[in-house]
Amino acid sequence: MARDNGDVMMWFVLGAAVGAAVALLYAPQSGDRTRRILSRKAKESREVLSDGGRELLDRGRDLYDRGRRVADDAAQLFERGRRMVEG
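Above: the chain sequence. Below: its structure as tokens.
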């Protein structure tokens, strides 16, 4: 589910950036002003993607840690069961 949310967010931001770029290219403004606006929007988009990437990385670490704990618990249970069977 977290991956789906990250994918949706990435595509949304990418679509918004492309839409903004196209709108600015067709806007009746000077080239210098349009380049400044595009530069600012690109910076904002990078920041949003960076924040989203950090969030996904944090979620991934959390899932890894939980999985690691479950695997460790399962290994301990397996070892206890082996000792009980052996004797």
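The first helix runs from residue 2 to 25.
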